[in-house]
Design brief:
- There is one protein chain.
- By secondary structure, the chain is of the alpha/beta class.
- The chain is built from 22 helices and 17 strands.
- It has a 7-stranded mixed sheet with strand order 4-10-9-8-7-5-6, with helices on both faces. Strands 11-12-15-14 form a 4-stranded antiparallel sheet.
- Strand 2 and strand 3 form a beta hairpin.
- It is globular, with a radius of gyration of 24 Å.
- The two termini are 14 Å apart.
Length: 500
């Protein structure tokens, strides 16, 4: 009986693509153990090929990046950092990690890069504790005349723990576009620190730097943190640097959402966080278009503290993911990627402008980055209802709270829409006009659902079936022009790995 790879080679008329051969061979290996997992991978490709991806935090990494993760590097323990490991036999992992770090430093112009963190939440914890070690632990050890934590008495260590837990953090309020890890009460960050969030102007929705400076001078935080997950404007990091210096804080930037715009030289000068911050954290997916993971960029004075991510916070690093990060960073350090990053913003602004022309209300009246917040209450919908309606019509987006949202963080009043993924597919500004039109068409064709007793149901919808059918046709027309991973023959993959 022929194998799937043999079937593919036979079907392609002697002109196989390397990417397809690799994908078929990989799935064949997976299917030999558990066919349902191989089938799920293929079905996910199909799902993503049939939906417009407007989730601002998602993207499509290259097949080369994916390939770098599928190898035996995953088998190696490598706690520590290059040339300072707690396990033997790490010479090749050292090479992988140093290559990834060097690529990151070259890409961002950073003093130092730490590429081990697994996620944005992990990398922020490492950064927090690096700062606490530098600014609280080291001075305490010097004060007590000892060199190591192990030299402290139990009473001295208990005093140090109290000092750790008595520090202040100022980050953007979660309700105003900040991230969970920036001091939100439901997150460990607000339990580690005394959290003093700052917001945006209720009138404009913009950051008020003078108000932030006034608050910082009153609070005197250890860490002044900036960055966002749902704020549609650029941030002036030079201004934040001035505020941090004035109040005596360490300046930390979480650029997870817009790292690709920094790498692609869209955000430069006053808007380049690496130039101004002491420590910068980021994920490596989102706009950066790499594997799921994270890293830290920092000034030299923090490098030794950041390197203690293990044993401080992290367990063993993931060498196969660090290899994929090295590939993604190399891809991003190119003129083609810089053009891509510019197009992300052009597309976002085109989408925002066309949405507003159709009467939509956008937070801050537009965007300067990769995302926008659309107020769907003007259509009589909650964010959850709008999200559900869009998904039925072939559009993946997410409900998102607007600043000071009366519908709260779950039901929300808004939709967050981003352009990184569609830009990767090759969408242009003309396509964005059609996307805006489809959004408006779906929202207008959707009504809030009701409960059995006739009361409004914030999570239920009534979607006009004619609207759904027409929206699906329009979505498919766009996606037929911009195919995800065109190197992959989906019909063949479905026949070999799903039908069976």
């Amino acid at each position: 009986m022929a194998t799937p790879l043999e079937n593919y080679l036979s079907s392609c008329g002697g002109k196989p693509t390397a990417a397809m051969c690799a994908y078929v061979a990989n799935l064949q290996q997976v299917a030999s153990v558990n066919p349902s997992i191989a089938a799920d991978v293929v079905k996910e490709i199909e799902n993503q090929r049939t939906h417009l991806k407007l989730v601002a935090s998602e993207n499509y990494c290259s097949l080369s990046t994916q390939a770098a993760m599928g190898n035996l590097l995953t088998d190696k323990y490598a706690e520590g950092y290059p040339e300072h490991r707690y396990y033997g036999g790490c010479v090749n992992v050292d090479s992988v990690e140093m290559t990834a770090a060097k690529e990151a430093q070259d890409l961002f112009g950073a003093d130092y890069a730490y590429v081990q963190p697994h996620s944005g939440a992990d990398t922020n914890l490492v950064a927090y504790w690096a700062i606490l070690s530098a600014k609280v632990e080291t001075p305490t050890l010097e004060e007590l005349g000892v060199k190591s934590l192990n030299d402290l008495t139990d009473a001295q260590f208990d005093e140090l723990r109290k000092r750790f837990g008595n520090q202040k953090l100022m980050g953007l309020d979660y309700s105003c576009g900040g991230h969970l890890t920036h001091g939100y009460k439901m997150n460990v960050s607000a339990r580690m620190f005394e959290s003093h969030p700052y917001g945006v102007s209720k009138d404009t929705g913009l950051l008020d730097y003078d108000a932030i400076e006034k608050q910082a001078m009153e609070v005197k935080p250890l860490i002044l943190l900036t960055g966002y997950s749902a704020y549609p404007r650029k941030i002036n990091f030079k201004r934040f640097r001035e505020i941090a210096d004035k109040c005596g804080a360490v300046l930390m930037v979480d650029m997870a959402h817009f790292a690709g715009l920094v790498a692609g030289k869209v955000f430069t000068g006053d808007y380049d966080p690496v130039k101004w911050a002491d420590i910068v954290t980021t994920t490596t997916h989102k706009t950066l278009r790499g594997p799921r993971g994270a890293m830290i960029l920092c000034k030299k004075e923090y490098a030794d503290y950041v390197n203690k991510g293990c044993p401080m916070v992290l367990g063993g690093p993931l060498p196969h993911v660090m290899a994929a990060k090295a590939i993604a960073f190399k891809e991003a350090n190119s003129p083609a990627y810089q053009a891509y990053a510019q197009n992300i913003v052009k597309n976002a602004q085109a989408l925002a402008d066309n949405c507003m022309k159709l009467g939509m209300r956008l937070q801050t009246g537009g965007t300067e980055n990769h995302l926008m917040l659309i107020d769907v209450t003007t259509y009589g919908l909650t964010g959850k209802q709008a999200e559900a309606a869009l998904f039925e019509c072939g559009i993946t987006a997410n409900a998102n709270a607007l600043p000071y949202d009366k519908n709260g963080a779950w039901w929300t009043s808004g939709i967050r829409a981003g352009t990184p993924a569609l830009t990767t597919l090759g969408f242009d500004e003309k396509d964005m006009a059609e996307v805006a039109s489809i959004l408006d068409f779906v929202f207008k064709g959707t009504k809030p659902g009701v409960t059995k007793d006739g009361k409004p149901a914030k999570g239920k919808i009534v979607l006009d079936p004619n609207v759904k059918d027409e929206a699906r046709k329009r979505v498919n027309a766009l996606l037929s022009k911009h195919v995800l991973y065109p190197e992959l023959d989906l019909d063949f993959l479905k026949k070999e790995f799903v039908a069976c």
